[in-house]
Amino acid sequence: MRLSRQLPVALLGAALAGTVLAGPAAAADDYYRDAEGKSGAELKTALHTIISKMDKLSYDQVWDGIKATDEDPANSANVIDVYSGKSQPKTSNGGGTGDWNREHVWAKSHGDFGTATGPGTDLHHLRPEQVTVNSERGSKDFDNGGGEVGGAPGNRTDDDSFEPRDAVKGDVARMILYMAVRYDGAPDLEPNDKVDNGSAPAIGRLSVLKAWSAQDPPDSFEQHRNQVIYDQFQHNRNPFVDHPEWVTSIWP
């Protein structure tokens, strides 16, 4: 069976209803054929090869990409900010205080790749967020704890880490782990179990990210987003959205 670049009926219905789907959403074909039966480092290598076959965007094209991937299901004129959960007009993208901009979930200074085509423009880790909240997250690693972020209830931060709201904890974890598999080379990105990683090509805490992925499995919004990136833009997938069980296979 070949994978259609069409949103499956079950997934579309779930996206509109806002329900959670169990198991892989749209990978019921041979996309992951070369990863079947593998685990650990062998699985990571196979997935790297599979998902590295992609179309790359420019940083300007990312604006249009995000407007499609993070569209508010209840209002097609808006996007939903990843941390605050706020629905904002697509047209309010920019650098002003009330605008939303492009949040690099894998902070671009961690590996010093900036906005280079590839890691700096990969939609699988670029999300919309209010300028002020994006600035508050900055380039901090991810961990539990801290004080609540102003304007973004449920998010917490301290001097060296950021904790997203519960509804997107798993999303954040799976974006970070996608980056570690996709860019397992140049730059050689990898999660570790510490914070304050600075400009090293690493983000932590891995143990917390794994817990977040288990705590917050992929929902219809995340699965729909994965499908839109595959269908309309990069033509590659985040394997941990389709197969969250692979997280602990690669990082036991």
From TrEMBL:
Signal peptide range: 1-22
GO molecular function: endonuclease activity
Biased composition (Gly residues): 144-153
Keywords on record: Endonuclease, Hydrolase, Nuclease, Signal
Highest taxon, organism lineage: Bacteria
UniProt cross-references to SUPFAM superfamilies, sorted A to Z: His-Me finger endonucleases (SSF54060)
The keyword Phosphoprotein appears for this protein: no
Keyword Hydrolase annotated: yes
Chain intervals with Basic and acidic residues compositional bias: 100-111, 156-167
Region (Disordered): 79-167
Coiled coil stretches, renumbered: none
Pfam families: Endonuclease_1
Protein name: Endonuclease
Source organism of this protein record: Amycolatopsis minnesotensis
